[in-house]
Amino acid sequence: MENISDVIIIGSGPAGYTAAIYATRGDLQTVVLAGQTPGGQLMTTTDVENFPGFPEGILGPELMEKFKQQAERFGAAVKYESVQNIEIGAEKIFKVKTESGIYETRSVIVATGASAKWLGLESETRLRGKGVSACATCDGFFFKGKKVAVVGGGDSAMEEANYLTKFAEQVYILARGEQNKLRASKIMQQRALSNPKIKFFYNTEVKEILGDDKVSGVKIVDKKTNDISDLKVDGVFVAIGHNPNTTFLKGIVDMDEKGYIKIYDGSRTSQSGIFVGGDVADYHYRQAITAAGMGCRAAMDAINYLDQKS
After folding, report:
1. Packing angle, helices 186-193 and 155-164, rounded to 10
2. Which residues are catalytic?
């Protein structure tokens, strides 16, 4: 039994590493399965200015490195492996399978986050973090007095656009759908339509994001006329949704229709011994600080769960 850890944390963003800090300080033998590209969405964020304790701001990758160092300081073992599936063995021992083998543990914390859906453009990838973002509340502050475009036609796009008007001089919504046929709810559309800083482009598809070292505009096409034009903007916010990273958990825990893990009490899932924290269960806030708080809660619930079993 000595090779069985007390807790395995799947994911290495703010939720995962915070859970590791609390779990190890709670005297749990802790393994973090960080994935092949560790650090979560903050690894693609340049300046983080809304995380407490860093009044001058900090680079996203630098912040995540500090999270990792703190977790390792207290004894967490970080493995750069991705989880393929989880099985429940005898005596409620979880078998977590990765590409290199199987890890056994008495409890699991899932903190795999959610991945933003992107347009799939080369220019989008190249300029990510240089004017291209998927989070207005994270990056809107950097566009004070500037012009930005929001790509999308759902509630998320309307919400992002309205939020960005707090900072930007002009917000363009680039929607593929026709007027009055957008996916967004009527009330969200009306809020955006009534905002004098927002202008809609319907039947519009983004062909390319322009710029070398930073965004300078977008090349768009009118799907009805096939007319191509350039729109000058300083930032592009892609708001076409997120995909929670939960495919490996199908049949293990309850999820909603979008694939987000359901929480029933604190951080507990439908499967006893499996806990959850961060964006993998939170499609509303999606902030580093809320994810970290959820990671703390998951670790404390795991500690309590194991105490009651012993």
Report:
1. 30
2. 135, 138-139
pTM of the model: 0.82
Average pLDDT over residues 145-166: 95
**Which string of b and e fits 254-272 if b means at least 16 CB within 10 Å?**
ebeeebbbebeeebbbebe
Angle at 155 between CA 152 and CA 161, to 5 degrees: 65
Supply the Cα-derived Rg of the chain in whole angstroms: 21
CA 2 to CA 276: how far, in whole Å?
25
- Residue 52, C-beta contacts closer than 8 angstroms, at least 6 positions apart: 289
Residue 221: exposure state from Cβ atoms within 10 A (0-12, 13-18, ≥19): middle
Residue-wise pLDDT for 217-240, tens only, equals 999 999 999 999 999 999 999 999
3-state helix, strand, coil in the chain (%, to 5): 30, 25, 45
